[in-house]
Design a protein that fits this description.
single chain, Glutaredoxin, five-stranded mixed β-sheet, 7 strands
Amino acid sequence: MVLCLVALPIFALLSIFSVRYRRLTLEAVDCLLRTVTLRKCRSGLDERIRASISGKLLKIWPGAARFTYRYYKALSWIIFILFTWSLVVSAAGIVNYVKYGNCNGPASTGFCLFDPTGSQSAICEADIDIPQQTVTPAPGEGGLLIGAPDAQLTIIEFGCYTCPHTRQAQSTIEQVLEQYRGKVNLEFHPFVLSRHDFSGPAAHAAYCADEQDKKETFHELMLNNPEVISQDNIDALAAKAGLDTARFDECMVSGRYDAEVDADALLGVRAGVQGTPTFFIGDQRIVGPKPLKTFEVIIDPLLR
C-alpha cells in the first residue's frame, strides 16, 4: 500500500498522456481508499510493482534484486517518507516564494529552485566568529541615517561598499525608501570585510561625507558605482558628490572615525551578521539582496 501512495500522483500525471496509466491510477486510488477504511487492497498493485522492479534488477544485479524483493516493504516505507518530506519541503518553498519572493524565507541564503543562480540569497561572507547569543540591533545605535529622520520605521542595514551583493540590493532599497517616503528610513552601518580591499577606507569615507552633510549623495554614488572601489575611485566620487576635497582628504588621513567604524563592526557581530548585505526590520532579519516583495511583506504590517 505504501508504494501505491507514491505511485498515485505519478500515475495520475502520466495518465494525462497514456490510457494505460489511467487504469493504474484507478487501482492506486482504490487501494488507498480501501486502506484508509481498514480493508485489504485487492488490486495487487504493490506486488506487481515489487515483481517488476525485482525482475528488472535481476538482469543487471542479482544481489540487488534479491535484497529489494526481501526488504521491499521497508524500502517502500523509506521511499514514502522521502516522498512525503519532499512534498512538505516543496510546499513550504512555494509558500515562501509566494510570500517573500524567495523559497527559504527572508533570512536564508540556501538554494532556491526558483532562483537557481542564488542571486537573491548571495552575501559577501565575513571572516568572524558569531557569538552563541545574538542581540537584534535597535535604531539609533550609530550608523548613517538615510531618509526622513522622523520616519515611523527604520531599516537597519549592515553593508559593505565593496560588496557586489550590497550594491545589488541598493536598487531595491531605493525602491523601498521611495515607496514608503516619509514613513521608512535607512540606518546604514558600514560593515568592514577583511577580505575586501578598500572596505575600510570606503567606510571611513562615508563618515567623512557625513561630516560635510553629503552622506546620502555619496552613499548612493558609492553603491551605484559600477567600477571596482579603489582610493582613486573614492576620491573621484567624493568630488562628484560635491565634497570639499581638501577637507575630505584631511578627514581620511586623520582616522577620526575609527571608533564609529569599529562600533559598526561590533554591533554587526553582536547581531549575528554573517555577511553583507544583512537587514533588520523590527525583529525580522533579511539576508541577501532579496526582492521588493520581501520587504513589503515585513514592512506593511509594521506600519498599520
